[in-house]
Design goal:
The structure holds 2 protein chains of 2 kinds. Chain A is α/β, with parallel strands linked by helices. Chain A has 13 helices and 8 strands. An 8-stranded mixed beta sheet of chain A has the order 3-4-2-5-1-6-7-8, sandwiched between helices. Chain A starts with a strand and ends with a helix. The relative contact order of chain A is 0.17. The model of chain B has no long low-confidence stretch (mean pLDDT about 75). In chain B, about 5% of the residues are buried. In chain B, strands 1-2 form a two-stranded antiparallel sheet. The chains are: A alpha/beta, B alpha+beta. At the A-B interface, helix 7, helix 10 and helix 13 of A face helix 1 and helix 2 of B.
């Protein structure tokens, strides 16, 4: 049985696609068979972040409509052979997806993959509901900022009431908090909610803290998920996320601002 | 002037914007959680009253009556009443 993980947030622009790409690739690098699905019908972007935008021939909606087989639509990652990407369609309307046909596709994928990572669209409309409906686990991507935290809480409500697990009265979706764009320096200065603050408010277990990092933009510019940038703080923080998803206990890093030298402390700069 | 700033900051321990943010979030999140988890306070009394009115006209047993407040998409709430009518009541 594949583990179905939805990467969700409510709010847009918090790092869902960046995180989906990093998590998908990171799990595949560990030798697992992974498929990454873009649920953002009409606004696909996972292909760009993964660097496979030129190789899209068929998409998720083509598969749903029977115009292509899954094998025709899946794009094999060039870096890691155990990773495939199922792109969203760019043109079709988002009502193409429903519980029944999405369930069929996931069941078919579940036969040959260990992990199915669903990159959710922003919002709480049909597309986002479809992305979370079949999930076993949810990575709730949150920025340390008021609107993102509030929207994450809305999504937690949806996970608890609108998912398949909720409807069937099964064990609830396992929730993980992924705090992204974290700036320890601003936290120390009292300008940004701290990890503890966000944990207090949302009260779900912490999966990872990704520091605000220039590496993320560079990675998306190049179409190379940031987890491949093993030198960068963000890349390393995503590595830790993968370890934790696989059941390891790893200390949290990048929570403290870099210590300034005594001179810059005294004289500014 | 970093040195000066440092002492000034320590002295006047002002409320940071982050702690304001946390406080505001705790309040609004608690409020929103309540409204999505809890049936409203007036529901038991409303049920009583509706039953009272119904019983002026028809026989309704407690089992043949149900009331449910459902949250739908967005801000839409639906109050759903289910009343089972038996044949004898139809004419009365």
């Amino acid at each position: 049985m594949a583990r179905i993980i939805v990467v969700t947030s409510g709010k847009g622009g918090v790092g869902k696609t960046t995180s989906s790409a990093a998590i998908g690739l990171g799990l595949a690098l560990k030798g697992h068979k992974v498929v990454l699905i873009d649920f953002d019908i009409g606004l696909r972007n996972l292909d760009l972040i993964m660097g496979c935008e030129r190789r899209v021939v068929y998409d998720f909606v083509n598969v749903i409509n029977g115009e292509a087989t899954l094998n025709q639509a899946l794009i094999k990652d060039k870096r890691v052979s155990s990773l495939s990407i199922l792109p969203a369609s760019q043109t079709r309307d988002k009502d193409a997806l429903n519980k029944e046909n999405v369930g069929k596709v996931l069941a078919e994928l579940g036969e040959s993959y260990d992990f199915i990572v669903c990159d959710s669209p922003a919002g709480i409309e049909a597309g986002a509901m479809m992305a979370l409906y079949y999930a076993d686990e949810a990575v709730v991507t949150t920025n340390p900022e008021v609107s993102s935290v509030r929207d994450s809480d809305r999504i937690l409500g949806m996970l608890a009431s609108r998912s398949r697990r909720a409807e069937l009265g099964l064990e609830p979706i396992k929730e993980h908090l992924l705090l992204t764009r974290y700036s320890p320096k601003r936290v120390e200065e009292g300008e940004m909610l701290s990890v503890e603050d966000v944990e207090d408010i949302l009260s779900i277990p912490l999966l990872g803290v990704i520091p605000e990092s220039q590496a993320v933009l560079k990675a998306s510019n190049a179409g190379e998920p940031v987890i491949l940038d093993t030198e960068s703080d963000a890349g390393q923080a995503y590595q830790d996320v993968i370890e934790r998803l696989l059941g390891e206990t790893v200390d949290f890093r990048f929570l403290q601002a870099e210590k300034k030298g005594i001179f810059s402390r005294l004289f500014g700069g | 002037m970093a040195l000066l700033d440092y002492f000034l900051r320590k002295k006047g321990k002002q409320v940071t914007t982050a702690s304001k943010a946390k406080e505001r979030l705790q309040i609004i999140v608690a409020h929103e959680r309540n409204s999505r988890n809890k049936q409203p306070d007036y529901l038991p009394q409303l049920t009583e009253d509706i039953l009272k009115v119904l019983r002026k006209y028809i026989k309704v047993s407690d089992e043949s009556f149900s009331i449910n407040l459902d949250k739908k998409e967005g801000d839409l709430n639906v109050l759903e009443l289910n009343i089972e009518l038996h044949d004898e009541h139809k004419t009365s």
